[in-house]
Amino acid sequence: MIRGQTSDSIPIDLITEILSRLPAKSIARCRCVSKLWTSILDRPYFTKLFLTRSSARPRLFFAIKRADGWCFLTSPQPHSPYDKSSLVLVADFHIKFPGYMWPGFFGLNSGLIYFYHMLISEKDKDTVVPVPVICNPSTGQHMSLPNGNMKKGFLGFDPIEKQFKVLSVRLYNENQSPQVLTLGTGNVSWRKIHCPLKHYISYCEDGVCINGVLYYLGHRVDVWYRVIVCFDVSSEKFNFIDEEFFRRWPRTKLINYMGKLGAIIYEYVAFGDTMMYLIKDVMKPEQRQHVYFFGKDTFVDDSSVSVTSTGDVVWLIYDTSKLFYVFYFNPIRNTHQRVEIQGFEVNHDAFANRRNVRVFVDHVEDLNFIK
């Protein structure tokens, strides 16, 4: 604040402009400055302005599973990492979120995280059944959902109606119908929906939401092989992609490749080595492209592989080093870069088990939350 001035003497437009440039973790502290600042930060105009500013500076987002919950960090996201011989980024601590047991983690979707199996309080672990939880990692706001029989769930977003829905699907051989829960309507309850093809998924299965459609790998019950399940968030209808190519690959990660459904496939080649391939369009699996070769001394976390809006494939590599690295690969230019991430030193749990760390690209901080 300018010496000799009070917040009342500073134009509200100027205060709004300054606050909209702050990170989300600073907004909560700013609410305590005065009633005027609180009223400014609660305005829909400010929330929209903040989101617009954040969208222009997407960040890398790191989620670390700790013994006492989750720790979220963010760092700048490099736009042209291949132009430098080496690159070092610093991840700033963002927020700590309580989450006990081993909560299922779907990932980021339009600024929200969906945990499908979580306890918020450690004192409840012996008396309370875990429930699904929606969390805004930018603000720490969260909301517990009805149990829904604790099946695996996915968070989908309809960009036309601006509406979030949670899809709950059977695990393994459970004989149960899929369920849907619509958020933000005031009626938080599960509804059974019809699915023309009986299928199940495993705990480790991830999904991806692209332009209002949820995609995930499902295991058919009748013939015992996998298909790509497509769930339209708006109409709540199912479709399926039954490509023979995907039936024989045990390690497959569906991705959003520049607005199209793509896939990352891992193949064991020899002596413990692994080859990673990129498919830019699942409807054209024969056009798979060699992405990267991993030796037996490294491990790639397939749950953390993602693609930026500009087409860079990004993933975490675990090796014998005590440093954290994010790998960037551009399949068009055929260039790659290893980016060192600093700032994890205080998170001892991350060093103890690096597979507890997940990275997401193009993270945009958003102050909105489901009411």
Automatic annotation (TrEMBL):
This is F-box domain. Pfam families: F-box (PF00646), FBA_3 (PF08268). Residues 4-49 form the F-box domain. SMART domains: FBOX.
